[in-house]
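[Meeting: bench + compute handoff]

Bench side (C.D.) handed over the final construct sequence. Compute side (W.E.) agreed to return the predicted structure before the next meeting so the bench team could plan truncations. Sequence as handed over:
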Amino acid sequence: MSPIESTTVAQVLTEALPYIQKFHGQTVVVKYGGNAMTDASLKQLFARDVVLMKLVGMHPIVVHGGGPQIGEQLDKLGIDSHFVNGMRVTDAATMDVVQMVLGGLVNKEIVSLLQAQGGQAVGITGKDGELIQAEKLAATTFQNAEQDAEIDASQPVDYGFVGQVKHINTSLLDALYKEHFIPVIAPVGVGSDGVSYNINADIVAGEIAKALRAEKLILLTNTPGILDPEGQTLSSLQRQDVESLITQGTISDGMLPKVECALEALAAGVSSVQIIDGRVPHALLLEVFTDGGVGTQIVGF
């Protein structure tokens, strides 16, 4: 290593030190999805970042999605699938695939990736220990009549086995924390009658962050963060700034539910929410351990 390279490494480590000290012993909930979850090299880097966070004394919790993997499996099985208001309508056959893909294939792959990097990980779904107690998502009207000509826009849409979080039972996470495991959570909840529900991973991550009063909630996306009208990334926003951008229509479409999830987490006591670009190598480390970060940070005041 040349003297210049050595100096660069030393500067990086020095910059990281105060953040390592600040976040030591703190819980960080990470929603894992997008390209970071499908690109082979990014998957390896993500696992390494999470394990490093654990080794320096943080308590990362991973909540993952799996929409593309579910869609691929449904296609293989010849099961039709469609989305309404941005959510996958989930009938009984689709729910079986959701549980198989999220709780099996995807969840266990993430566990294996973390353990290959030297971490101790445990894969669970929201059904384990009744971690995610859920209820059926109420029917809503169709917001875009042109999206699916087969659906009557005047009638409420029944999403099937799509759920919403009713309560997070943190006792299982507390037990895993005491044994120094990294929890990897598939967003499948269970109703009081034992029925399983497919739940949006962003929402689950936010609800877990709220229940644990996490220091940080980090949402990995396929965008650089929240963008201004000129397409530039807004690096830091306060709660009132976000509310104003929503009113103006600058924040809309797929970013809107993520931002609403962020605002709810902040209101419940989570210190900050980061919406970051999962396509950037080592995005987690850059966000947590550097001054500049990567993406958009939202704070409550």
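W.E. noted at the follow-up: The mean pLDDT is 88. C.D. will use this when planning the next construct.
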